[in-house]
């Protein structure tokens, strides 16, 4: 997730810091920053859920240590500058003056967030996702508020909510979903909210916030953040009356506060569910029960919460047709009657598209650099999909073979002329007959890439030493670790 501005901000949204405390940063220049000294002066976790008087939360938000810790987290998450053009490095260099000014403005209630820069990111399945990029100072204030509010709300959220929470994530969500399927709840009510982050009702959100936050200044501050104007890519300014813009550190917590009402309703009805952000799966035993639940929950969302279900992406489905966080489930794929976890069809299609983009026919650099890029991507990909069960290994092997063939095709094209390829194959230990049959066959590079001469010259063992393999990566992460003592005994 990556080095361009908007993608870095996607990381800010997906991995928002867990709040409080001094961040331990890998960057040596950040470790030497005076910010660490300020952030370490006082514990900044703020009052938790059990504190009776939460009427002075703004003082917690505006304390120097909390603001310094917030700026450290913003620097760690990087991200693109907002409309004012200030980068995180520039803000870090002026940290002392920024903290003094923000502390004064927050306590005097004269702080006003700047306008948000809107960028559009393409969705994997088509369409665009709007991302809001606040100014760095505004991200710092949002992070400071997050660090105080998160300890208050986090203990109140339902255990089946796995999105944007400390020590929870996609892997814990998949594990819970798998447990429900194993228990016999094998129909999935798949609910996807249409443009959820653009349709959050401000008054309902602020009312739920005020139920736990008795400091009205915090509620007013959050209102200012929610209603900050948005500047579109063409320069048009848009007033905001609903929604929580994706891109700021506070947005994930606000979304959980809103959707906690849905979690409470599902729990009150005794339903088994797993939710990650606006993607919710409810597990029932039959199709009839699933249709009944879908109808009633649709009514609750539309009439009570004023949210709309995305009818195209929602429905009552068997597990193998579900696309949940990139995974699908197969209840008939294991001999022991268990539940097989695989990459979903969409995830596999997206992976193959990425591999094609990373191995273009006209690749003009070294093969080593191409394989290095692929290795980095596949290592990151498998870190998410390592939860796949053994049934998915064969599919991963198909992807590996396809990537190897694309690399071979690039090698063929880089040799340019048949006689150059012929000489190259002979130098790689291929017989004259096989080398000639490949180089002079009259077919294109894609056909030649799968001829016996090429597969011998560039066998899987050659790639094993130079490029990551999904199959091997999965085995590394799923092979039981044997202790050194046990190994000695054998």
Overview of the structural elements:
The protein has 490 residues and is an alpha+beta fold. Helix content is 52%, strand content 9%. It contains 24 helices and 10 strands. The protein has helices at 5-14, 28-31, 35-39, 57-62, 64-77, 88-93, 95-107, 136-153, 170-182, 196-199, 202-212, 216-226, 251-268, 287-304, 345-358, 367-385, 393-414, 418-427, 432-439, 445-448, 452-457, 460-464, 470-478, 484-489; strands spanning 116-122, 128-133, 187-192, 230-231, 237-238, 272-276, 279-284, 315-317, 327-330, 340-343. The strands form 3 sheets. It has a 4-stranded mixed β-sheet, with helices on one face. Helix 5 (64-77) crosses helix 7 and helix 11 packs antiparallel against helix 12. The protein is globular, with a radius of gyration of 27 Å. The protein starts with a helix and ends with a helix. The model is unreliable at 1-32 and 482-490 (pLDDT under 50).
Helix-strand blueprint:
Blueprint: H1 5-14, H2 28-31, H3 35-39, H4 57-62, H5 64-77, H6 88-93, H7 95-107, E1 116-122, E2 128-133, H8 136-153, H9 170-182, E3 187-192, H10 196-199, H11 202-212, H12 216-226, E4 230-231, E5 237-238, H13 251-268, E6 272-276, E7 279-284, H14 287-304, E8 315-317, E9 327-330, E10 340-343, H15 345-358, H16 367-385, H17 393-414, H18 418-427, H19 432-439, H20 445-448, H21 452-457, H22 460-464, H23 470-478, H24 484-489
Parallel strand pairs: 1-4
Antiparallel strand pairs: 1-2, 3-7, 3-8, 4-5, 6-7, 9-10
Helix pairs in contact: 5-7, 5-8, 11-12, 18-19
């Amino acid at each position: 997730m990556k080095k361009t501005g908007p993608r870095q901000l996607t990381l800010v949204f997906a991995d928002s810091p867990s709040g409080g405390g001094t961040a331990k940063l890998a960057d040596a220049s950040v470790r030497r920053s005076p910010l660490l000294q300020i952030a370490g002066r006082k514990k900044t976790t703020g009052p938790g859920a059990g504190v009776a008087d939460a009427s002075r939360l703004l003082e917690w938000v505006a304390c120097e240590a909390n603001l310094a810790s917030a700026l450290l987290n913003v620097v760690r998450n990087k991200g693109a500058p907002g409309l004012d053009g200030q980068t995180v490095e520039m803000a870090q260099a002026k940290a002392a003056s920024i903290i003094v000014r923000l502390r004064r403005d927050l306590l005097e209630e004269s702080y006003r967030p700047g306008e948000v820069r809107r960028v559009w990111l393409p969705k994997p399945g088509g369409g665009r996702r709007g991302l809001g990029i606040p100014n760095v100072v505004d991200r710092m204030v949002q992070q400071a508020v997050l660090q105080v509010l998160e300890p208050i709300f986090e203990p109140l959220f339902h255990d089946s909510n796995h999105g944007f929470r400390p020590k929870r994530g996609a892997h814990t969500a998949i594990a819970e979903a798998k447990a429900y399927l194993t228990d016999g709840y094998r129909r999935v009510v798949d609910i996807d909210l249409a443009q959820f982050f653009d349709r959050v009702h401000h008054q309902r959100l602020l009312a739920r916030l005020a139920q736990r936050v008795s400091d009205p200044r915090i509620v007013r501050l959050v209102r200012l953040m929610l209603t900050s104007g948005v500047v579109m890519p063409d320069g048009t300014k848009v007033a905001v009356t609903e929604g929580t813009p994706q891109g700021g550190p506070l947005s994930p917590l606000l979304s959980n506060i809103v959707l906690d009402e849905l979690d409470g309703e599902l729990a009150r009805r005794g339903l088994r569910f797993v939710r990650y952000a606006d993607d919710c799966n409810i597990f029932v035993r039959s199709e009839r029960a699933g249709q009944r639940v879908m109808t009633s929950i649709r009514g609750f969302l539309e009439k009570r919460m004023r949210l709309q279900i995305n009818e195209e992406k929602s429905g009552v489905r068997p597990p193998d047709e579900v696309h949940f966080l990139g995974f699908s489930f197969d209840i008939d794929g294991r001999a022991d009657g268990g539940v097989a976890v695989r990459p979903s069809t969409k995830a596999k299609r997206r992976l193959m598209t990425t591999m094609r983009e990373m191995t273009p026919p006209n690749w003009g650099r070294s093969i080593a650099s191409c394989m290095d890029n692929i290795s980095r991507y596949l290592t990151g990909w498998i870190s998410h999909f390592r939860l796949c069960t053994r049934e998915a290994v064969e599919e991963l092997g198909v992807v590996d073979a396809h990537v190897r063939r694309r690399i071979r095709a690039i090698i063929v094209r880089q040799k340019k002329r048949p006689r150059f390829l012929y000489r190259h194959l002979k130098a790689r230990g291929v017989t004259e007959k096989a080398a000639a049959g490949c180089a002079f066959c009259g077919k294109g590079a894609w056909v030649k890439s799968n001829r016996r001469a090429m597969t011998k010259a560039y066998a899987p063992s050659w790639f094993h030493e130079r490029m990551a393999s999904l199959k091997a990566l999965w085995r590394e992460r799923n092979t039981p670790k044997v202790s050194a003592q046990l190994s000695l005994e054998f």
